Amino acid sequence: MQQPHGTTPDVPEDPVGEGADPGPGRPVRAGIPEHGRVPKYYAVKTELEALVDQLGEGGAVPTERDLAARYGVARETVRQALRELLLQGRLRRRGRGTVVAGPKLEQPLSLVSYTEGVRRQGRVPGRSLIGLDRRPAGQVLGGQLDIAADDPVWHLERVLLADDERVGLESTYVPVARFPALDREFDPDSSFYAYLRERLGVRFATAEEKIETVLATPREALLIGTPPALPMLLLHRLSRDTGGRPVERVRSLYRGDRFSFTTRLSGD
């Protein structure tokens, strides 16, 4: 892709070929607009995607200077293309360089703990405790957990890990009256669901879950170790036991570049 500096590289109108299958997860016609004019950064990004496939997971990506020289574009153009691939999770930072990232973690949308979901993919789950404290439930949380506003709840906050990589932040709220010994009995590095199931005999039956995209706050970005501009997937969950009683209210923040969520649908 050698072009004179400052010119728009030539890109075929249909890079995947007439009628060709662009492959799962890839946009039809590789994202080329109908008028056929392609931004320079997108043309570079297309070239970089092919390079990423060649390098494989963990492969070191050339520097911005080298890529700019290779493709005959400005470094800012390369920077924008790299930025998009970082946000998509195709690349990740390692020290002062950039390497090809592995596949995203696929977390099932089901009553399965984070620990179980990560282990199913051959990764090692972990958690790092930020804090475990008591606080009044307040009106909104109290209403969700069917307790009074001034009743205390435990707030358990932990950084989520996969193979020692920070990938998310989880806040769990449960009534102190129902779990009075949580601060003494529970190992915060372990699965909370396993503790409820094996130690206390609590069984989950249903959950209401909502997913939205957000940007992390400066504090959250610092804890997870990501830039504040990185898109996040935010999950709100209210779980109930087999008797219909609320058990927990959970707020989970996952890195958008490292996570995707799956579910199985069926007809009536």
From TrEMBL:
Cited Pfam families: GntR (PF00392), UTRA (PF07702)
Residue ranges annotated for the HTH gntR-type domain, each copy included: 38-103
Annotated stretches, region: Disordered: 1-34
Gene Ontology biological-process entries: negative regulation of DNA-templated transcription
SUPFAM superfamilies, sorted: Chorismate lyase-like, Winged helix' DNA-binding domain
Record SMART domains: HTH_GNTR (SM00345), UTRA (SM00866)
Listed GO MF terms: DNA binding; DNA-binding transcription factor activity
Keyword annotations of the record: DNA-binding, Transcription, Transcription regulation
Protein name: GntR family transcriptional regulator
Originating species: Streptantibioticus cattleyicolor (strain ATCC 35852 / DSM 46488 / JCM 4925 / NBRC 14057 / NRRL 8057) (Streptomyces cattleya)
Organismal lineage: Bacteria, Bacillati, Actinomycetota, Actinomycetes, Kitasatosporales
